[in-house]
Write a structure and sequence with these properties.
There is one protein chain. It is built from eleven helices and seven strands. The chain has 251 residues and is of the alpha/beta class. A hairpin with a 5-residue loop joins strand 6 (213-216) and strand 7 (222-224). Helix 9 packs across helix 10 (201-208). The longest helix has 23 residues, at 149-171. The radius of gyration is 19 Å and the shape is globular. The chain starts with a helix and ends in a 9-residue tail after the last helix.
Length: 251
């Protein structure tokens, strides 16, 4: 196996949208059905970095930004994201769903230069009223301090100011942008999102591991698509034998 195959570039999909649009829920559904994809929630990872002291000399500044729901400076966030992705690739992951990033066009540009260009950008649309209700009633552990009316309003204003620039940038290449209306039952929205992704070649590659590579095996060899398909069939047979009805389905 060549060195280029041993060290492949990350395959990236961004999922962006307003606070409360359901990015985390939809990301969780996607990686549950496509387990070769790594869900990188940028907000959750930044909070874990804060707890571990990973911001170093920027710890106090990062705490203020995160506690207020403000946008972290690109020079603080990008090195941590790069290190995280490289670390997970060392464990065998190659396909990354990056949730809640970028939040402005400058972040997108630095990410593309420093890490990789995205295969796709999933842009969730959710009206203010629906997003507000969903965020204020979601009751996610460790987010009570930031899931407030004041912080939601501030973040939604930031979203309306910056997201159009991101969407315009990626809409110049229609092969990259997937627009999804997330104002509905999440199971329905999820199926529509996956269907829209499959309409694009890059989306099919991301969902299926289209170049034949998925997650690294324990012995250090990349698991090919045929092996993953066999694993899937074995799991399906086991689920059927056990009376399970949850194989890759969203209800």
């Amino acid at each position: 196996m060549s060195s280029s195959t041993q060290n492949p570039a990350p395959k990236i999909v961004f999922i962006i949208g307003p606070p409360g649009a359901g990015k985390g829920t939809l990301s969780g559904l996607l990686v549950a059905q496509y387990p070769h994809i790594f869900h990188l929630s940028v907000g959750d990872y930044m909070r874990s970095c804060l707890l571990s002291g990973a911001f170093g000399t920027s710890q106090a500044s990062a705490a203020l930004h995160l506690e207020s729901g403000a946008l972290l400076p690109t020079e603080i966030i990008l090195p941590l994201l790069k290190g995280k992705i490289e670390g997970e690739m060392g464990k065998g992951w190659r396909y990354f769903l990056v949730d809640g990033f970028p939040r402005n066009i400058a972040q997108a540009g630095v990410f593309e230069r420093e890490i990789a260009k995205p295969l796709l950008v999933i842009n969730l649309y959710c009206p203010y009223t629906t997003a507000r209700i969903q965020l204020l009633t979601r009751h996610i552990p460790n987010r009570a301090a930031t899931d407030t009316e004041e912080i939601f309003s501030r973040r939604y204003r930031e979203y309306t100011n910056h997201n159009p620039g991101i969407v315009y940038n990626y809409s110049q290449n229609q092969l990259k942008l997937v627009n999804v209306d997330s104002n509905g039952p999440k199971g329905v929205v999820f199926r529509e999102m996956v269907g829209s992704m499959r309409e694009k070649e890059a989306g099919r590659e991301f969902l299926d591991g289209g170049d034949g590579w998925g997650k690294l095996l324990e012995n250090g060899i990349w698991k090919g698509k045929e092996e993953r398909d066999k694993d899937g069939e074995d799991k399906k047979e086991k689920d059927l034998g056990d009376g399970g009805d949850n194989y890759g389905m969203v209800t």
